[in-house]
Specification:
mainly beta, five-stranded mixed beta sheet, globular, six-stranded antiparallel beta sheet, 535 residues
Length: 535
C-alpha cells in the first residue's frame, strides 16, 4: 500500500507567517430560492424548523395563544391543535409527519391524514424509500406498534420501531411480565432481557422539570444495523450499566457510559466499542475510567480528568434511559477521552486496523492503533481518522503548539498558545482542521497549511468534497454583534457567501464539483441557498 505523506508541511511555523485574506461576500456566486415565510406575530426565535434531507421542504410549528399550527414551506398544513410535536420528513423528503394533541388524545398526522386517537404516541419512522411507516402508541393502557396502519400485539411497554435498510424488516423492543424481547416483523426474538434501552421517548405524559421529553426533538434509534445489513446491535441492562448486544450473541462488558460499536475485519465479523465507569456519580470531582472492548475483551483502563461533568446524566438517569442519548454518548458525541479516558474506536477503510485515543495521565495522551501506543501529546482533541489509503491522522496540543500527526509522525507544529483543534475532516488523502484559541480567533488548515483566519463566535459544519485533485472546503462562520444579535455565513474555498440571521447547518452539503447548498433564515424568510466556487 502506498501512503501519501507529502500533503503535510512537517515544519514549525509562526502564527503571523501564513494569514490568508478571505474573499469578500459580494464576490461569491450565490443564488437563493424562497422556501417559506414565518407568519406575522410569530417571533422567529420561537420557531424550530425541520428541513428535509434534500433541503427542498421545511416545516415548523407556530403557536398563537393556546393553539399550534404546522407550516409547510410557509403554507398552513391542516388545522390548529392543542399541541404539535415530533415533526419529521421521510428520508426522501416526499412525506411529512407530526404528532398532534387535541383534548386528552394524541394522533399522528401523515401527509394530512390522521391516525386513530391514542392516549400517548411514541416515535414515527419511515423506511429508507419512504413507502412504509411505523410508530408506537398507547391505547387501553397498553402499547402497540402500528406498521403500515396495522397494529401489532399489545405490550406493557415498547420502544420505537426501526426499519432494516431494505425496508423489509421492522424491529422494536417490547416488555411483558417485566421481561424485554426484540420483536421482528411481529415475531418475538429471544432471549428475554431484564432491560433493553428503548431509545426514543414517548410523547405525552412524560414530564421532567415541566418539559415534556421528546415533544420537540427525536432523540435516537434504539438499535443500529451492522454494515452487512443483516445483523443489528442494541443495548441491554447489565450489572455494570449497559452493554451492546449483537443479534444472536451475548452482551460484552457493561459500562455506565457506553458508545455505539464499530465493525471491522473480514465480513465485518469483529466488533469494538468504548465505555466508561464513573466514581461518585452526581457528585463534584468524580472521575471516569474508560476501556475499549474488542471482540468481547476489555483493554487496559484509562482514567479521565476529574470533573463535575464526568458523571452528569449517567446511564440510568432520567426515566431509566442511557446517558448516551441525553448528553455525551450514542447521539451527542460519544465517549470522550478527556472526560472518560478513552475515545470511541475508528476503523481504517480496509477494515483491518482500529485506533482510539487513550489518556494515560496528565499531559500524557496517545493514540492506540492495533494495540500499540503512539507518541505522547498533552491533548488529542481531533481524530484519529484514516485517509483513503490508510494514513492515520489526528490533531492535538504539545506545549504551546497545535500539532497534526500522520501515522504518528508530526506533520505540522503551529506555534499558537492556548489553541486547540475543534473541527477535523478527511477527504481522500486530504486533511482539514479548524482550531481556536478559545477567545474568538479561528484558523483553518488544509493539508498542513493555514488557508483562513476568522474572528468569530463559532466555526462549525466543516464539509469537504473532491473531484479529481481538487478539494473543496466549506464551513459556517458565526459572528456576534455588541447588541447581542448574531449572523452567519458559509465560507467556500476561502470566499465567504452572504450573511444570514441563521444557517440550518444540518443540511449543509457540498457536491464533488464544489457546489454548496444549505437552508438559511434572513428575517422572517427561509431560503434555500446555492453557493458555487469562484472561477
Amino acid at each position: 500500500m502506498v501512503r501519501m505523506r507529502a500533503v503535510f508541511t512537517g515544519v514549525m511555523v509562526s502564527a503571523a507567517a501564513v494569514v490568508t485574506v478571505l474573499g469578500s461576500g459580494p464576490n461569491a456566486r450565490v443564488t437563493e430560492e424562497v422556501l417559506g415565510e414565518i407568519s406575522p406575530g410569530i417571533d422567529p426565535a420561537d420557531v424550530s424548523p425541520v428541513v428535509s434531507n434534500d433541503g427542498l421542504r421545511i416545516a415548523w410549528e407556530e403557536r398563537q395563544g393556546k393553539r399550534s399550527t404546522l407550516r409547510l414551506n410557509g403554507v398552513l398544513e391542516g388545522t390548529a391543535h392543542d399541541e404539535i410535536a415530533a415533526i419529521r420528513f421521510s428520508p426522501t423528503g416526499a412525506r411529512v409527519a407530526y404528532a398532534a394533541k387535541d383534548g386528552k388524545g394524541w394522533r399522528f398526522i401523515v401527509d394530512g391524514a390522521a391516525s386513530p386517537v391514542y392516549e400517548m404516541v411514541g416515535t414515527l419512522r419511515f423506511s429508507a424509500d419512504g413507502r412504509r411507516m411505523a410508530y408506537s402508541a398507547k391505547t387501553d393502557g397498553k402499547w402497540v406498534v402500528v406498521v403500515d396502519g396495522v397494529a401489532g400485539r399489545p405490550y406493557d411497554e415498547v420502544g420505537a420501531p426501526i426499519f432494516s435498510p431494505d425496508g423489509q424488516r421492522v424491529l422494536h423492543p417490547a416488555k411483558r411480565n417485566k421481561k424485554w424481547v426484540v420483536v421482528e416483523n411481529g415475531e418475538e426474538r429471544g432471549p428475554e432481557r431484564t432491560e433493553i434501552w428503548r431509545g426514543d421517548y414517548q410523547i405525552g405524559g412524560q414530564l421532567f422539570n415541566n418539559v415534556r421529553i421528546g415533544a420537540t426533538r427525536i432523540v435516537g434509534a434504539w438499535a443500529r444495523f451492522a454494515p452487512d445489513e443483516q445483523r443489528y446491535v442494541y443495548f441491554v441492562g447489565v450489572k455494570d450499566g449497559w452493554a451492546p448486544v449483537l443479534s444472536g450473541t451475548e452482551p460484552g462488558p457493561g459500562f455506565a457510559i457506553v458508545d455505539w460499536p464499530v465493525f471491522f475485519g473480514a465480513q465485518f465479523a469483529r466488533v469494538a466499542y468504548a465505555g466508561a465507569r464513573v466514581s461518585k456519580p452526581f457528585a463534584g470531582g468524580e472521575k471516569a475510567t474508560g476501556q475499549v472492548v474488542i471482540d468481547g475483551v476489555a483493554g487496559p483502563p484509562s482514567e479521565g480528568e476529574a470533573t463535575e461533568q464526568a458523571g452528569a446524566g449517567l446511564a440510568k438517569a432520567f426515566f431509566g434511559q442511557p446517558q448516551t442519548v441525553l448528553q455525551r454518548g450514542v447521539l451527542l458525541g460519544g465517549v470522550n477521552a478527556g472526560l472518560h479516558g478513552v475515545s470511541g474506536p475508528t476503523v481504517s477503510p480496509d477494515r483491518e486496523h482500529i485506533a482510539y485515543v487513550s489518556r494515560r495521565g496528565t499531559n500524557d495522551v496517545v493514540v492506540v492503533r492495533d494495540g500499540a501506543a503512539g507518541p505522547r501529546l498533552d491533548r488529542i482533541s481531533c481524530g484519529p481518522r484514516f485517509t483513503a489509503s490508510g494514513v492515520m491522522a489526528y490533531a492535538g496540543v504539545l506545549g504551546d503548539a497545535l500539532v497534526l500527526m500522520a501515522d504518528d509522525e508530526r506533520r505540522l507544529a503551529f506555534s499558537w498558545e492556548g489553541a486547540d483543534c475543534e473541527r477535523f475532516a478527511v477527504e481522500g488523502e486530504h486533511i482539514v482542521l479548524a482550531a481556536s484559541d478559545g477567545h474568538g480567533l479561528y484558523r483553518v488548515f488544509k493539508d498542513g497549511r493555514q488557508v483562513a483566519e476568522h474572528a468569530a463566535t463559532r466555526l462549525g459544519s466543516l464539509r469537504l468534497s473532491s473531484e479529481g485533485e481538487t478539494l473543496h472546503v466549506a464551513y459556517e462562520v458565526r459572528q456576534g454583534a455588541p447588541d447581542g444579535t448574531a449572523s452567519s455565513c458559509v465560507v467556500l474555498d476561502g470566499t465567504q457567501g452572504r450573511t444570514y440571521d441563521e444557517i440550518l447547518e444540518e443540511v449543509l452539503q457540498v457536491s464533488p464539483e464544489g457546489k454548496v447548498t444549505y437552508v438559511a433564515r434572513r428575517g422572517r424568510q427561509f431560503v434555500r441557498v446555492t453557493q458555487v466556487p469562484e472561477t
